[in-house]
């Protein structure tokens, strides 16, 4: 914690719901669940005098489609978390069971969480706030005068997110690309002990990932929400046959959720014209 404070490091902790939900998946090698340990450390972090870092955030995978709202309430009301995001379960088109009907419930679950967030908008609920910021009248990039903010985004390389494993091995962020994508992308193993971190961040693998991300799936081009969604997470777009030229396996859920928020904004006075300008222009 002293190191985190000294270097102003933002910290996110994974916790997947209440004890019975979290301990179903996040276990130690012995099989013992990690929930009690995680909660104790969240509280320890919150009680520490952290003066220079961003606020603690949590990351939760929606592992139980029916209890996302319960998780949201627990995190915000019991653990006093005010920065959070829900992730969808790992899945791509090759793994998807075409007869599965559960996935549409993710969209509905997120709308329930939206209603909870609407009662206390001080919570930075990233699933909602990122979308709502699309409709802000000012462009953040144009309001910041800094050499660190790139005005011309056409040459910017995104997805420079990395994992540094405990032995120093470097990997690109494992949510970005599923295992099956190795045939589309190959990255030789590198280690922080023998490569400069900046060298790795500017290596060819990140240019390849950026190029894939910029190529919006052809079926998404006519979608109302393509400007914001861009086809969804790369992992959820993947199939062995088409690579990343597929809409997200959670496409229906995302559209359901975005449309729900759009309707709410309209009811609270945001004009259809303004919404259309931000989404479609």
CATH architecture identity of the largest domain: Alpha-Beta Barrel
- Gross morphology: globular
Strand order of the biggest β-sheet: 1-2-3-4
The helix/strand order is HEHHEHEHEHHEEEHHHHHH
Tell me the count of domains: 2
Distance between the termini: 45 Å
The CATH class of the largest domain, by name, is: Alpha Beta
> What structural category characterises the helix and strand content?
alpha/beta
Task: Give start-end ranges of low-pLDDT stretches.
Answer: 139-154
Rg estimate, integer Å? 20 Å
CATH topology of the largest domain: TIM Barrel
So how many helices? Answer: 13
**What about the largest sheet?**
4 strands, parallel
- Rounded mean pLDDT is 83
Strand fraction: 5-15%
Helix content: 25-40%
CATH homologous superfamily name of the largest domain?
Answer: Aldolase class I
**Count of individual beta strands:** 7
Can you lay out the helices and strands and say which pair or pack?
Layout: H1 2-6, E1 12-14, H2 19-25, H3 35-47, E2 57-61, H4 68-78, E3 83-87, H5 104-118, E4 124-125, H6 126-132, H7 140-143, E5 162-164, E6 169-172, E7 190-191, H8 197-201, H9 204-214, H10 226-229, H11 234-237, H12 251-267, H13 272-280
Parallel strand pairs: 1-2, 2-3, 3-4
Antiparallel strand pairs: 5-6, 6-7
Architecture overview:
- The protein is of the alpha/beta class and about 280 residues long.
- It has 2 domains: about 1-135, TIM Barrel (Alpha-Beta Barrel); about 140-255, no CATH class.
- The chain is about 40% helix and about 10% strand.
- The chain has 13 helices and 7 strands.
- Helix 5 (about 105-120) links the parallel strand 3 and strand 4 (about 125).
- Mean pLDDT is about 85; it is low at about 140-155.
């Amino acid at each position: 914690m002293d190191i985190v404070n000294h270097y102003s490091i933002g910290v996110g902790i994974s916790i997947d719901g209440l004890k019975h939900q979290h301990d179903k998946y996040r276990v130690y090698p012995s099989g013992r669940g990690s929930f009690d340990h995680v909660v104790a450390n969240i509280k320890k972090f919150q009680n520490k005098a952290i003066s220079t870092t961003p606020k603690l955030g949590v990351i939760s995978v929606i592992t139980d489609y029916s209890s996302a709202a319960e998780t949201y309430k627990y995190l915000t009301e019991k653990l006093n978390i005010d920065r959070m995001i829900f992730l969808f379960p790992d899945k791509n088109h090759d793994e998807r069971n075409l007869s599965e009907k559960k996935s549409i419930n993710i969209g509905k679950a997120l709308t329930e969480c939206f209603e909870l967030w609407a009662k206390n908008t001080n919570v930075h609920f990233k699933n909602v706030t990122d979308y709502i910021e699309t409709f802000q009248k000012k462009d953040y990039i144009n309001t910041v005068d800094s050499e660190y903010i790139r005005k011309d985004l056409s040459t910017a390389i995104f997805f420079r997110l990395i994992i540094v494993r405990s032995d120093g091995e470097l990997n690109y962020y494992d949510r970005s690309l599923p295992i099956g994508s190795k045939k589309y992308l190959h990255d030789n193993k590198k280690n922080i002990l023998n490569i400069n971190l900046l060298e790795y961040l500017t290596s060819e693998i990140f240019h390849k990932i950026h190029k894939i991300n910029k190529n919006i799936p052809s079926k998404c081009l006519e979608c109302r929400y393509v400007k914001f969604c861009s086809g969804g997470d790369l992992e959820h777009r993947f199939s062995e046959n088409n690579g990343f030229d597929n809409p997200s396996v959670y496409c229906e859920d995302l559209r359901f959720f975005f449309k729900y928020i759009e309707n709410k904004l309209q009811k609270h006075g945001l004009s259809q014209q303004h919404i259309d300008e931000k989404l479609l222009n």
